[in-house]
Amino acid sequence: MAREISLGRWVMRDEMAELWRVAFQDSEEATQHFFNYRFQPENSLVYLVDGKVSAMLHMLPVELVVGEQLAAAQYIYAAATQPVHRGAGHMGALLAAAAACGQWRGEKYSLLLPMSPALYLYYAKHQYQPFFQTRYVSLTREEMQSCAREGGQALATPTMAELAAERRELLASHLGSVIWGEQHLTYSATLYELYGGKFISLAESWGSAYAMGINKGNGEVELVEVVATPSLLGPLAREIVRQMPAANYYLRLPAFGELWAGRGEVRTQGMIKALTDEGLRSLEGAAYPYLGLTLD
Hints:
- By secondary structure, the protein is an alpha+beta fold.
- It has helices spanning 13-24, 28-37, 90-105, 117-124, 141-147, 160-171, 182-194, 230-243; strands at residues 3-7, 44-49, 52-66, 69-81, 109-112, 129-130, 133-140, 178-179, 198-204, 207-217, 220-227, 248-254, 265-268, 271-274.
- The protein folds into two domains: 3-132 and 269-283, Gcn5-related N-acetyltransferase (GNAT) (Aminopeptidase, 3-Layer(aba) Sandwich), CATH 3.40.630.30; 133-267, 3-Layer(aba) Sandwich (Aminopeptidase).
- Strands 1, 2, 3, 4, 5, 6, 8 and 14 form an eight-stranded mixed β-sheet that branches. It has a six-stranded mixed β-sheet with strand order 9-10-11-12-7-13.
- A hairpin with a 2-residue loop joins strand 2 and strand 3.
- Helix 5 crosses helix 8 and helix 6 crosses helix 7 (182-194).
- The chain is globular.
C-alpha cells in the first residue's frame, strides 16, 4: 500500500467531511459548517493510504501569552482516523508532521484538548503535557438571578471584533493563556447555535461582554465561555436568565477570573507541546493558563 502525508487540498474536502461524520457522529449541517467557514487546506494535514484519506487533523492558528508578547501557536483540532486504520500509527505520524509544520511556520507551541482521560495518556506519548486550567462553577437559577440587573443605559450589540478585543484584554496579562481571533469566535458562536445553543452579547459605553451556552436538557444549561468585567456581569446575567432559562447553570471560567471568584473546582482542560529548543521555560510560573473556545 502506498502511504504519504500531505497538506489537505480542496478536492479532498468531501472525503475529509465524511471522515469527520464517521469519527464524531456529527450532523451534516455541523460538519459542513466547519468545511464551509473554517477549513483551510494549508492548515490541515492528511494521511493517505493508496490515495485515500485514512486520517486527518487541523492546525488552527492561535496566539499564546508569553510575558508581554504573544507567541504564534497551533491548536490541533478534529484529529480523526478511519476505524479500519486505527492503531496503525497514522495519527502519531500526523502529530509529528504537525509539529514539523509548526516549526517551519515559526510557531512556538502546539495545543490540543483530549476528549477523554485515555487520550491524555495517548497524547502524553507524543510529548504533550497537561497545562491549561478551567474553573467549573455551578449556579442555581436563583443564584444567577441574584447577579442580574438592568444595564445603566440602553444596551448595544457589539461586533465580533469588539468582543474578540475584550477577550484579548481580559487574558493578555495571564501567562500561557490563549488568544483566539475574531474568526474563531464567530465560528464558535455560530456552531453552538447550530446545536440549539445561544450566543448572548451586549455592550455599554465602558465595554462589552458575551456568554456562549448550550441547553443540556433536564433544566440544565452549560455556559462554555463567559467573558465580562464585573461591571457588566449584571446585565449579562439578566440576559442569560431571559434568553436561556434553566434550573441550573454550569459555567466554564478562567481560574484567575473575577466572576464568581473563589467558587467552583479548577480542573485541567487541555495540553501543550513546545516546538522550539527553548521548550516551556518561557512559560514557567504560569498560574492557571486558560484555553477556552475548545469546541468540544
